[in-house]
């Protein structure tokens, strides 16, 4: 049974500007995500990674029903990739099954989350 659905889209240009502030990056990305981010050498790839993580976490928060708030923070959620490259939430508070899809175009990143019981 589906318990929640969330979707979010963010413009890459907005994230490219925000990346200039390291505090913003550290507000959104957990330690494992920061390690992956810091290993990237391309600013375009860094922007895509951060935008995808931002959209995924916003979509999750919508599906969870709280939004990003005092009940759920960006750092409560960690997105990783499995061996085939598919994203998944390695850390999150929901006890059921969580489905995640992230997509990028040249101008935006979109994420879709379904919470299933």
Commentary on this structure:
With 117 residues, the chain is of the alpha+beta class. It has helices at 12-18, 22-28, 31-39, 43-64, and strands spanning 2-11, 78-81, 87-91, 97-104, 108-116. The strands form 2 sheets. The chain has a 3-stranded antiparallel beta sheet. It has a two-stranded antiparallel sheet with strand order 2-3. β2 and β3 (87-91) form a beta hairpin. α1 crosses α4 (43-64). It is globular and about 40 Å long.
Ranges where pLDDT stays below 50 over 5 or more residues in a row are none
Q: Strand order, biggest sheet?
A: 1-5-4
Which descriptor suits the 3D outline? globular
Tally of strands: 5
Chain-averaged pLDDT: 97
| Level-1 CATH class name | Alpha Beta
**Secondary-structure content class:** alpha+beta
* Count of separate DSSP helical elements: 4
Specify Rg, calculated over alpha carbons: 13 Å
* Domain tally: 1
Biggest pleated sheet: 3 strands, antiparallel
Helicity, as a percent range: 25-40%
CATH homologous superfamily classification: 4'-phosphopantetheinyl transferase domain
Going by CATH, the architecture would be: Alpha-Beta Complex
